[in-house]
User: What shape does this take?
Amino acid sequence: MPVHNADIAAVFEEIADRLEIQGANPFRIRAYRNAARTLGELPQEARALLEKGEDLRRLPGIGEDLAAKVSEIVDTGRSSLLERLRRELPPAVTELLHIPGLGPKRVKALYHDLEVQTVEQLYRAARDGRIRALPGFGEKTELNILRAVEAHATKTRRFKLAVAAQYADALTAYLQGVPGVRQVAVAGSFRRMRETVGDLDILVTAAANKGVIQRFSAYDEVAEVLSAGSTRASVVLKSGLQVDLRVVEEASYGAALVYFTGSKAHNIAIRRIAQKLGLKVNEYGVFRNSERIAGDDEAAVYNSLGLPWIPPELREDRGEIEAAHAGRLPRLVEFADLRGDLHAHTKATDGHDSLREMALAAKEIGLDYLAITEHSRHLGVARGFDPQRLARQCDEIDRLNPELDGITLLKGIEVDILEDGSLDLPDEVLGRLDLVVGAVHSQFSLSRAKQTERILRAMDHPHFTVLAHPGGRLIDRRDPYDVDMLRIIRHARQRGCFLELNAHPERLDLLDSQCQMAKEEGVLISINSDAHSRLDFAHLRYGVGQARRGWLEKNDVLNTRSLSALRRLLDRTM
Ligand code: DGT
Ligand code: CA
Ligand code: CA
Assistant: This one.
């Protein structure tokens, strides 16, 4: 049974939850939460790293003990610690922690005093007025719990793209190994590279349907088979991710790919076009009366409607059909267009690898240059740089560059933008650098006017070059701060600055619509990995996906430029 990073992260989260309910040492709890985070964000499967003989202790927050626990989970699919903790408290208790307003203390009280173990029992206890009597609860809390449980029931869970990719990759490989299977494609929002996906939609062509559906339902990771017919099946994986499978004929493969890639809005727009031409389009093909005029090939389906093939990332009915009609579809940026990366950290601050290791890894994925941009001193938790440490790293980069072949390190900083818009390091220090990446890491809840002004003033600094993760959101965890992004983009244009599209799967910040806005205003976007280890360059693919959803072409992206062209663009005095 393949164990994915998200599964390991879930084990660590549950361990942390259970330790917390038991009132364990907060440091120990935090260690498991940090490890869950590290595993959850790791771009390569821990299993693959172990198979390659990599030392997991190099990962952030993973020491001897946690590395051994990861190995145990990968090797056995189980965690003896979690099993022990589950024996101590019933398994469902941790689900209560996911109800807003219920922390470990309250969960413990509910469990001990009312024997509440599940969300249903919690609901009944609240409805029957039994909770208000507990010490520290009261009537208001009881009502809040009731509301929270109702809201919890209607919330559907979405998976971050990078997490869904782990499940999709493994399942695709499995299906490809099923006898008789010819083509396997993941369609839906996954193929459109949406930042989160609700479920996976998989298309298969095969010599015989029956075996495929059977083998799909028998996949190791399947927790529940929702339905299984002769050409379609739906299952829920152990992770909670739903997967819909369709087995289609070769003659319909292209049409099915269009239909199940969606989006729904795009499909509806396509059908309207077909109607105007007196054609009918569905998942089986494009039909004139009863004659199929296209179906096996996706491009041919579009062509039969008088359109060129439209890249999946654009299929949201946001103008792509009109652009296709007019022959004005963008030539979207591709991963291979990237020449460099302008945001990365090393172990000198909160990263995990050395300058040289980061440089070699960047070269390995085909980049020509890499900017090292450590945090600045204001970010104490990340051991941010003061001027002396920054100067020392600059010297080190100057010494290292001549030894590096085929990759150039650039000197940068990810400097904190302070509340008043000043930068965390003096101008003369920043002046020595090749570029200055500025970021908001504090005071997220300023008013829209103040937050916007703060960023505009930061860009006024003579050496400011790139605004990092401009919206500040963390998917599922933190909303973006309130800013006037159009004003920021226009100010960047005036000041000769650039905006980052942070490719970290938890950030993907700028949003696709904001990429489009920047493009219209003529502001170049830098697709940056924000790598904290040499494995994190893999994030860039998700950044490219988001950029493509934002209609960006090679020329709209700063780091598709050659190093010499980049240097000219970074020099704001020219
Ligand atoms: P998700 O799963 O919420 O992230 O988003 P999608 O886009 O993957 O949506 P999903 O899984 O419900 O359906 C997959 C595709 O199937 C969708 O993108 C378009 C197509 N589809 C589903 N329902 C309809 C429908 O009622 N009408 C049309 N025209 N297409 C549909
Ligand atoms: Ca889907
Ligand atoms: Ca679906």
User: Anything to note?
Assistant: Residues 188-189, 197-199, 201 surround calcium ion (ligand 2) (CB under 6 Å). The chain has four domains: 5-153, 159-247, 253-325, 335-573. Residues 5-21 form the longest helix (17 residues). The CA atoms of residues 97 and 244 lie 30 Å apart.
